[in-house]
């Protein structure tokens, strides 16, 4: 595939998955992802408004370079957590159309990153667990329900951030005598780029030098999953807590959306689709045993999910008018 697909008759779609720790962008040609790139996060809460939006514009311009026939652009961003934030971001991006060909596509959609998975689930619930946590469901009558997804002060229970904070506190408590010894005392420092025998002072300097940045703290979460897999009791307790929180989010959305028993529950995010299976293995039995008797299954890669939704939007197979976390740009 050349660097300039879409210069012929077949149109190109540009898709973006923007999470709390990174941003991925792709070109869709002939229905398939043919070119992708990963960059740092475009979340304004992490890097600031000016840097975040300029970084996104630069990525979109990279994707659109040399492409003559951009049919649609579909942006799924974790940073637009409320209908007001979606509307404000859509207006901001619309004001920058002149400098960005991707925003002048035939159609341009902006949405929260839980929307593609929820739409893919059909009448089911979507569970996202990476740096943050988010849940959504579409009911049989098109009712939309969402839970959590309001960043780490108001929400994000069970997420990478939440597990990271709890792991850091477990390490601190083990070191100062308030808590039991734990394998996390060696694994967490390594996850944050320190030696395994790092001191509390070392951890203090790293965490607070970064201002307790969400994406930094979340880097400790995979260490929790690894320690749980190796039988560490403290880590196992944390994983079981996180799984219960994810179940609560799924059930809350299912209840509000009016989902019937046996509805699908599709999960995605780095902590549920990554190499360490502890959280996935704890969550799946809970979903099956729920009063909703969910049928759990892994969702697609998030960028693939945005690709699939973009194609369905182009074909008129999906109506996002009743989804409050989506808007046209």
TrEMBL record:
The ATPase BadF/BadG/BcrA/BcrD type domain covers 16-272
Coiled-coil intervals: none
The record's annotation in InterPro entries points to: ATPase_BadF (IPR002731), ATPase_NBD (IPR043129), Euk-type_GlcNAc_Kinase (IPR052519)
* Listed name of the protein: BadF/BadG/BcrA/BcrD ATPase domain protein
Q: What is the lineage of its organism?
A: Bacteria, Bacillati, Actinomycetota, Actinomycetes, Kitasatosporales
């Amino acid at each position: 595939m050349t660097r300039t697909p879409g210069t012929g008759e077949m149109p190109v779609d540009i898709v973006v998955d923007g999470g709390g720790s990174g941003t991925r962008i792709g070109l869709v040609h002939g229905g398939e992802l043919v070119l992708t790139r990963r960059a740092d996060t475009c979340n304004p809460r992490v890097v600031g408004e000016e840097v975040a939006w300029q970084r996104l514009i630069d990525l979109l311009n990279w994707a659109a370079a040399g492409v003559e026939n951009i049919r649609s652009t579909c942006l799924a961003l974790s940073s637009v957590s409320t209908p007001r934030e979606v509307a404000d971001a859509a207006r901001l991006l619309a004001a920058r159309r002149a400098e960005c060909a991707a925003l002048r596509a035939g159609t341009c959609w902006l949405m929260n990153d839980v929307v593609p998975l929820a739409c893919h689930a059909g009448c089911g619930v979507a569970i996202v667990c990476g740096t943050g946590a988010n849940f959504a469901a579409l009911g049989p009558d098109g009712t939309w329900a969402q839970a959590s997804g309001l960043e780490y002060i108001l929400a994000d229970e069970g997420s990478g951030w939440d597990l990271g904070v709890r792991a850091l506190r477990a390490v601190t408590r083990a070191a100062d005598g308030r808590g039991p010894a734990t394998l996390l005392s060696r694994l967490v420092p390594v996850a944050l780029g320190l030696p395994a025998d790092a001191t509390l002072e070392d951890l203090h300097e790293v965490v607070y030098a970064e201002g307790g940045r969400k994406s930094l703290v979340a880097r400790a979460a995979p260490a929790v999953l690894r320690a749980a897999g190796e039988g560490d009791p403290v880590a196992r307790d944390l994983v079981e807590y996180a799984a219960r929180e994810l179940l609560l989010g799924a059930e809350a959305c299912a209840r509000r959306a009016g989902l019937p028993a046996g509805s699908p529950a599709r999960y995605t995010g780095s902590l549920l689709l990554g190499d360490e299976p502890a959280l996935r293995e704890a969550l799946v039995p809970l979903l099956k045993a729920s009063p909703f008797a969910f049928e759990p299954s892994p969702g697609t890669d998030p960028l693939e999910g945005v690709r699939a939704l973009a194609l369905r939007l182009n074909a008129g197979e999906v109506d996002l008018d009743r989804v409050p976390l989506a808007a046209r740009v």
